[in-house]
Amino acid sequence: MEPTLAPQPAANPLPAAVLRQVPKVLLHDHLDGGLRPETVVSLAASSGYQDLPSTDPAALGRWFRDAADSGSLERYLETFAHTCAVMQTRESLIRVAADCAEDLAADGVVYAEVRFAPEQHLDGGLSLDQVVDAVNEGFRLGEATARHRGQRIRIGTLLTAMRHAARSREIAELANRHRDLGVVGFDIAGAEAGHPPTRHLDAFDYLKRENNHFTIHAGEAFGLPSIWEALQCCGADRLGHGVRIVDDIAVAEDGGVKLGRLAAYVRDQRVPLEMCPTSNLQTGAADSYATHPIGLLRRLRFRVTVNTDNRLMSGTSLSQEFGHLVDAFGYTLRDVQWFTVNAMKSAFLPFDERLALIEDVIKPGYLLPGHDLPTEDRLS
User: Cα–Cα–Cα angle for 294, 72, 331, nearest 5°?
Assistant: First the structure.
């Protein structure tokens, strides 16, 4: 897309072991999109769910990746019917959340915000509050297990309302009730086309009155109007994906760049972009890693973060996402740290806690012998 702006791939890309070792921050990860295949099989057996495409964990994992790799967001979202079906009891929610925390910690993630839609987990008779309590209990259990293994992680929960449904105000109030009990913010998700974020203004206005945080899926399968509405009408703190902001950026043949007014606003206001490279390829929001808008946006110093979206459907981890970007753009540890600090600055945590994680955990974690030492960026 912007060959004169993209850095050349490095001759010696960062080893996968180094990418796993360094501390990372994850802001966009769906709980129901990150189950272990063996957990799906186990929970289906215990609950009597019989519609899985396969009961062999390896084959099931391949099925999820193949089904998601369709180039269609709508088809991508269909895969969640199976994972949500086995997440309808307190015990299953605790197990899935604990697995999530352990898996992220093993990948070197030190802080994560994991989102899920409580309204999709009521078929077993749980209330919305019971669903949230179970997930948070699982996260705390997984954090404790990780600590025993010498791994550090903290997880904040984002409660998601489905944009095609009519429960967003209810879920916003749920998020506010649990905001000091593990929930750090709110989100809306689901197919963008035909379901603009402005349908949920009541929920966003409520959250703003309560001084609460929220992010909005926008600019993934739909274009600039979705981003504009999320920011200027709804007041989003962050953008989930935001890939299509590049539609407001013109790149000339000589490498010159001109930002439209919306793109300039997003950059000037340091609006965090929760980008998910592999997922974007699967849903058709990008054509390849090498042409993913993240390359241009990083060069232009937008507040870009790197995320997994759905680890099961994409067959990925945060370390693997960075590995793809290292291969495509020649990124170094300095770049990986830059993305990580961006994410930590953008987390829905109090300022002093974000700063402590940056100074005491993230920056020291990138001082690795034999690798280039990161330097301070003037603006991030």
Answer: 20
* Helix 318-329 × helix 333-346 angle, to 10°: 130
The beta-carbon contacts of 76-81 under 8 Å, at least 24 apart in sequence, are 76/279, 76/282, 76/283, 76/313, 77/190, 77/191, 79/313, 80/32, 80/33, 80/120
Alpha-carbon 245 to chain mean position: 17
Tokens of 71: 């180039």
Percentage of residues of the chain with pLDDT beyond 70: 92
Two tokens, residue 181: 């009990």
- 220 classed as catalytic: yes
Q: Is residue 145 predicted with pLDDT exceeding 90? A: yes
Q: What is the CA radius of gyration of the chain?
A: 20
Q: Tell me: the pLDDT tens digits for 17-61?
A: 999 999 999 999 999 999 999 999 999 999 999 999 999 999 999
Q: Which two tokens stand for residue 31?
A: 């709980």
121 in Cβ contact with 96 (< 8 Å): no
pTM of structure = 0.93
How much is the average pLDDT of 198-214? Answer: 97
Residue 112 burial (CB < 10 Å; 0-12/13-18/19+)?
Answer: buried
Identify the active-site residue in 220, 229, 274, 321.
220
